[in-house]
Amino acid sequence: DAKTTQPTSMDCAEGRAANLPCNHSTISGNEYVYWYRQIHSQGPQYIIHGLKNNETNEMASLIITEDRKSSTLILPHATLRDTAVYYCIVRMPSGNTPLVFGKGTRLSVIA
Amino acid sequence: ETGVTQTPRHLVMGMTNKKSLKCEQHLGHNAMYWYKQSAKKPLELMFVYSLEERVENNSVPSRFSPECPNSSHLFLHLHTLQPEDSALYLCASSQEHSGANVLTFGAGSRLTVL
What we know:
heterodimer, A: 0% helix, globular, B: 4-stranded antiparallel β-sheet, 0% helix
């Protein structure tokens, strides 16, 4: 799988949008971009994924650049419960290829 | 509750004990995974089962022995562990197909080896 680069940590004020960047400059044409988060001592939680187009669901929006070399996860109105480690992962669509997690970005939402 | 249930949630064992971690998924998925998360380290993939057959074993020591009796259940048998094996062990499941693959994780089993 292509490697991703994320900032180690970020802060965000409660109620503001949290924009989490991810660099995946070596991504191949058919690799998906996934985002997961892990709240302290819990299992990771799926947030969103995309291939080429921007995606939105009830949790977040995913903006993928046209060249697909980077993406941004947007939490539109961050709450204290969004404090977590956020993982950006790229993965081939092969059925048995597992997700490989990096160190992620530790997002702290501040009141 | 995510649809993936892990038991026990907490386990303390001595180095000579034999214990097992259990994972059960209620999602109808056909692939299951064991991950290990040590303190301040990224998640490490341990084992992958697809259609009840092991398809990946990430150089895991033999003191960890997985078992997948059917598509809904996954076990991790533990014996003669070391203190450095203390970690959060996470089970996940997914429905394998070409294209996007979303994993659903359980809450984890926190293991302490004395």
